[in-house]
Design a protein that fits this description.
Elements: E1 8-9, H1 12-20, E2 24-25, E3 41-44, E4 48-52, H2 63-67, E5 71-76, E6 82-84, E7 90-99, E8 104-110, H3 112-115, E9 119-125, E10 133-134, E11 139-148, E12 153-155, E13 160-168, H4 175-184, E14 188-190, E15 193-194, E16 206-209, E17 219-224, E18 231-232, E19 245-249, E20 255-258, E21 263-272, E22 278-283, E23 292-294, E24 298-300, E25 315-323, E26 328-331, E27 335-343, E28 374-375, E29 379-380
Parallel strand pairs: 12-18
Antiparallel strand pairs: 1-13, 2-7, 3-13, 4-5, 4-7, 6-12, 7-11, 8-10, 8-13, 9-11, 14-15, 14-21, 16-27, 17-19, 17-21, 20-26, 21-25, 22-24, 22-27, 23-25, 28-29
Length: 385
């Protein structure tokens, strides 16, 4: 299945072949082809969710054996699904299972729409002491830990909250390789122009900074409301954002003071381009750098912000931000997260973009696909999908 001697992330056509050969399977269920993304596979919730009293890692044991010690309740995800309450951990067996060859490993991350709702997810596998990582040659089931943090959510069987990326070898680009690539084919833009080489912040990846200048009214993003209504994740679109979010305005000097433990959606100052022969991952902020956590780790597929004809220059990244124990000041241009880049094993048959229904190409709005889009200052676009 894999070309000998090559390293990289498996593209969509290789993921399809992995499904056809049984490397990725779903028992008696069919894996929908639309769940195959350019460099990842959307994983689906199974038929039941377990409310557990605490998170755990199985170590040398199977997840099923350890789970018995922690289950408080069992929820049926059939038909209308079930409500997951805030700040409570749930463990959900996924429909997909793996039978990886010895040279193939996996990594999982929440989908962008999941992170934008402040829903914390991470994969657990049998015999593992690490979240979200699938060891070379792993054969077994996949389990998803889910913790809604800002909103109570409704989920049901077959909903996709996270994604799996498979890779062979060591596809990561070094900092020197990133500099050389950016000089030839820019990866970051600011106001439509490539970021100058001497302005790049590189340390095991490319750093992104905050846009806190905001719009004409001074709004820079959103903060999750307390005591919001139930958020039905089984519906895509149609929700009034005002019921769930309040606007955040910058203060003089293009600054914002974050309230501890509140969830914010902000936007990067730079626009990002992921070319067809690369994939990227947004890395969670290093907690040693301040009282701040930005962005759940997340995948950027080949084609994000990319236009071969050069009609647009990248797409900005939505940043999920939370201060921890004390109020924390952030400023315009402050570097808060970074992208690491990996080589693709081959260019994917399909690229991220509107052609395959991607939700966030050329985004200028941080809210996810579950909410009605806005047009102008305060006008909702009614009837949008």
């Amino acid at each position: 299945m894999l070309p000998p001697g090559k390293e990289g992330v498996l593209p969509s056509q290789y993921l399809a072949a992995a499904i056809d050969s049984g490397v990725i399977s779903a028992g008696g269920f069919t894996i929908p082809r639309e769940n195959i993304q350019p460099a990842s596979l959307d994983l689906r919730l199974g038929e039941v969710a377990y409310r557990i009293r605490c998170s755990f890692l199985p170590g040398r044991h199977s997840v099923a054996d350890r789970l018995k010690d922690y289950v408080i309740d069992e929820l049926d995800l059939h038909r209308e699904g079930a409500v997951l309450e805030t700040n409570r951990p749930y463990l959900i067996p996924l429909k997909e299972r793996l039978a990886l060859p010895a040279n193939l490993r996996g990594k999982a991350n929440p989908k962008s729409s999941t992170g934008r709702l402040d829903v914390f997810t991470r994969i657990i596998t049998d015999g593992s002491d690490r979240f979200d990582e699938v060891a070379d040659g792993y054969t077994g089931n996949l389990y998803l830990e889910v913790v809604p943090l800002s909103f109570a959510i409704r989920v049901r069987e077959d909903l996709s909250l996270n994604q799996l990326r498979l890779s062979v070898g060591r596809p990561e680009l070094s900092d020197d390789e990133l500099r050389r690539f950016h000089a030839q084919q820019p990866l970051l833009f600011r106001h439509g122009e490539p970021v100058a080489g001497d302005e790049l912040a590189i340390d095991d990846g490319l750093f992104l900074s905050l846009d806190l200048r905001g719009d004409a009214s001074g709004r820079v993003g959103y903060r999750a409301r307390d005591n919001a209504p139930l958020l039905d994740m089984t519906r895509a679109g149609g929700l009034d954002p005002d019921a769930y979010w309040e606007h955040v305005k910058g203060e003089e000097g293009d600054r914002v003071v974050l309230t501890p433990q509140r969830f914010y959606l902000l936007m990067s100052d730079e626009s990002v381009t992921i070319p067809p022969d690369m994939a990227a991952e947004m890395m969670a902020y290093d907690p040693t750098s301040g009282e701040l956590r930005t962005h759940y780790a997340g995948f950027f597929d080949p084609g994000f912000g990319y236009d071969g004809a050069g009609l647009f220059k990248g797409s900005r990244a939505a940043l999920e931000v939370r201060a921890h124990d004390v109020p924390f000041m952030i400023e315009h241009g402050q570097r808060v997260c970074k992208l690491t880049f990996e080589r693709m094993l081959a260019e994917p048959a399909t690229l991220y973009g509107r052609g395959i229904g991607s939700s966030y190409q050329q985004q200028e709005e941080t809210l996810g696909k579950h909410f009605l889009p806005r047009r102008g200052d305060d006008q909702l676009v009614l009837g949008s999908p």
